[in-house]
From TrEMBL:
Binding site for IMP: D13, E14, G15, K16, N38, A39, G40, H41, T130, R144, Q224, T239, R303
Residues that hold Mg(2+) according to the record: D13, G40
Name the record gives this protein: Adenylosuccinate synthetase
Keywords assigned by UniProt, alphabetized: Cytoplasm, GTP-binding, Ligase, Magnesium, Metal-binding, Nucleotide-binding, Purine biosynthesis
Cofactor details (free text): Binds 1 Mg(2+) ion per subunit.
Organism, scientific name: Roseibium aggregatum
Catalysed reactions, as listed in the record: IMP + L-aspartate + GTP = N(6)-(1,2-dicarboxyethyl)-AMP + GDP + phosphate + 2 H(+)
PANTHER family: ADENYLOSUCCINATE SYNTHETASE (PTHR11846)
Lineage of the species this protein comes from: Bacteria, Pseudomonadati, Pseudomonadota, Alphaproteobacteria, Hyphomicrobiales
Domain of life: Bacteria
Cofactor(s) essential for the protein: Mg(2+)
């Protein structure tokens, strides 16, 4: 049996929710391994929509174990609120269905405030963050001053840890002209939520190793997309964690030999939310068409996504950096009705043709896309469940994408409905 990692191959928002939900039905365990509640998945099960920001997609299915790994930064209040929100929809989350890594770093109110102060500042670079404290929490993690979930178990030891944290944060706040935060306020913030989140705490690395040895199928669920990776993305317009597939091992406590298949979720065009370079962005009627037809609004923020043509250069690069085995191509139906469809096959940078996205921020802003044009199709692909249901030109488009990115299509999604999927290869049966 294969253990599968699901990653977004672009800038996120590729339609992972539907694919992860489809895979989670076959999995025994679903693991979140990075990010925080800045991500968003919308699941539709039996006509009911569930909007998840932090919880793994498996929580909405009975008999599945959901796990939040150590690579996630955890807002304990957001976790408690999401559990409560799901309970109102009839989904009861218990310690039998959810486990959270004891060594997960906590997001506090001061992280959210610092995130907003920086993003709203008129100086420096606007990143386009969700202002949910993700970046500052990761900073404290690598700065070795973070408060972790296990610290809530012994509140008597919290004051010393809070003092160490505030030595750093209050100096920052003074520099930004903000009032200092009292140690008592942070203590009360944590103490008030401890009983709500501690029942889910576990040694996740130990638990997952045991389940793996039992032969359980594990699905590793990434957030955002590989081009938002802190190392391999469009830095500095990235998230604050590693989003590539290799993080599934480090962010859950398992070794890389636990991963058997990497599925890259890939939109049939390209979108991006927030700031940063976007070589194929369309600011014309075609971009408007894609955004309207594709309902391109963020699950968490509601922000309108920027839209553009499919960029094979970027996805080919992600296939390399994440070791993608096969892709799930989503939203093909959004392209229905276009007379012409373009694909970016290379860039021009300062008069030279290149076949990769350069790491330099300045170079990323200067690259110009080189396009191939393919004829569109007038027939509808929406709801197609077999290759025979697709127009010939749509099949040619899919095959050309495979050739350009160097990875096969394992699944093809033709609508938000989970059954409107053409299965070529089941990742769990690799």
């Amino acid at each position: 049996m294969a253990n599968v990692v699901v990653v977004g191959s672009q800038w996120g928002d590729e339609g992972k929710g539907k694919i992860v939900d489809w895979l989670s039905e076959q999995a025994d365990v679903i693991v979140r391994f990075q990010g925080g509640h800045n991500a968003g998945h919308t699941l539709v099960i039996d006509g009911v929509s569930y909007k998840l920001s932090l919880l793994p997609s498996g929580v909405a299915r009975e008999g599945k174990l959901s796990v939040i790994g150590n690579g996630v930064v955890l807002d304990p209040h957001a976790l408690a609120e999401e559990v409560e929100r799901l309970s109102k929809q009839g989904v009861v989350v218990t310690p039998e269905s959810l486990r959270v890594a004891e060594n997960a770093t906590l997001i506090l109110s001061l992280h959210r405030e610092l995130d907003a102060l920086r993003e709203n500042s008129n100086t420096g670079t606007r990143i386009g963050t969700t202002k949910r404290g993700i970046g500052p929490a990761y900073e404290d993690k690598v700065g070795r001053r973070a408060i972790r979930l296990m610290d809530l178990k012994n509140l008597a030891t919290l004051p010393a840890k809070i003092d160490r944290l505030l030595t750093h944060h209050n100096a920052l706040r003074r520099g930004l002209g903000q009032d200092e935060v009292s140690a008592q306020a942070i203590y009360d913030e944590l103490a008030s939520v401890a009983d709500k989140v501690l029942p889910y705490m576990d040694k996740v690395w130990y638990l997952l190793d045991d389940l793996r040895r039992q032969g359980k199928r594990i699905l590793f669920e990434g957030a955002q997309g590989a081009l938002l990776d802190i190392d391999h993305g469009t830095y500095p317009f990235v998230t604050s964690s590693n989003t590539v597939a290799g993080q599934a091992a480090a962010g859950s406590g398992l070794g890389p030999n636990s991963i058997n298949y990497v599925l890259g979720i890939t939109k049939a065009y390209t979108t991006r939310v927030g700031e940063g370079p976007f070589p194929t962005e369309l600011k014309d009627e075609i971009g408007e068409f894609l955004g309207t037809r594709g309902h391109e609004f963020g699950t968490v923020t509601g922000r309108r996504r920027r839209c553009g043509w499919f960029d094979a250069v970027l996805v080919r690069q992600t296939v390399c950096t994440s070791g993608i085995t096969g892709i799930a191509l989503t939203k093909l139906d959004v392209l229905d009705g276009l007379d012409e469809i373009k694909i970016c096959i290379g860039y021009e940078l300062d008069g030279e043709r290149i076949d990769y996205l350069p790491a330099s921020q300045g170079a990323q802003e200067r690259v110009k896309p080189i396009y191939e044009s393919l004829p569109g199709w007038k027939e509808s692909t929406e709801g197609a469940r077999t290759w025979a249901d697709l127009p010939a030109q749509a099949i040619k488009y899919v095959r050309h994408v495979e050739e350009l990115i160097g990875a096969p299509v394992a699944l093809l999604s033709t609508s938000p409905e989970r059954d409107d999927t053409i299965l070529v290869q089941n990742p769990f049966q690799d």
